[in-house]
Model the fold of this input.
Amino acid sequence: MACVSPVLGEESGVLEALSKAYSLPVLYARKAVVKFNSREMDSPLPRYTFSFQSGDYLHFKQPYGTTGWWVGRVVGERTWLGLLPSEEKLLAHRERVVREGQEERGEGEGEGLLVYEDAPIMRPIVFLGPSSRDAELTELLQKALVAFMKEQFPGRLHTHKPRWSVSEGLTDKQAWALRGEVYRAGHTLNLVYLDCDASYHDDISWLHPLLIYVQVSRRRVLQKLVEEMTASAEERTAQLQAAYRLYEQSTFTPSPYSLVIRDSDLDDACQSLELFLESYWAATRSVSLSSSALSHPL
Done:
C-alpha cells in the first residue's frame, strides 16, 4: 500500500477547507495594526498563507482546526481565501520577536502589544464636508450624492440612521449600541450607509468608516457659496472655519478620508462615487477558484 506523506495530507486538508469555505459567511473582521510576513511563521500551507500590512482589513470565516490559523482573506479586489493567523497566534509571534529584540539591545520588557482591532465586516459609508454637517451647503451637496447612491445601488445598500447625535458625543452605552447595529448590518455584505451628523473624521473614526469627503477646492468659490447660504457673519465664519479644518485634514498623511470628491460637476462627482463604491463592493467579495487553481495558485 502506498504511503501518503503527512505534509501532502495536511495540504490536502487545507485545500479542502478553503474550497468549502467559499460558501460560508464571514464571521468577523479585523483591522491589522501590525505588518505580517507569512514567511516568518510555519503554516500548514505556506503558499496560501497571506501577508498583510498595517491598516489592511481582514475577513475571517472559520478556524482551521486547532492550529491557530483561520480561513479568511485580506479585503481587496481579486483576492481569494487562504490562511490568516489568529489574534493569539500573531500576538505570541510578535511578543517573541519584540522580546528577542529587547534582549539583544539589553532592554526591559515593553508594553502590551495590539495586533488587530475590531472592525465591521462592511465599513459604513459616511459623508463629510464641504463644511459642518448642519451647514446648508453641506446638506445640499451631500443630499444629491446620497440620492444618486441609493438609486445606483438598489438591493445592495442598507441605510442606517443612528438614534443619537454622533457629533455631540455618545455615552458608552449608546456607542456600544450603535456599534452593534452597524456590525449586524455588515453581516449581509451589503453596502452600509450611516446617515449620521458627523462633521469631522474623529467624530466617527471608531467605527472604521469609509469617509467620503466632498470638497470645494477653490477657496473663493467656497466663500461665495457660504456667503450666499448664510444669514449672519457669525454663522458664515463658523462654516468657513469648519470647511478649512476639513480641507486641512485632507492633507494629513495618511489621509483620514477614503475618497475625496473634488469634481465641480455633479455627474463627474457621481461617477467618482460610483467607481469607488463598486471597487469596495468587489473588494469585499472573495474570488472563487477552481480545484485546479487551488492546487496551483497564481
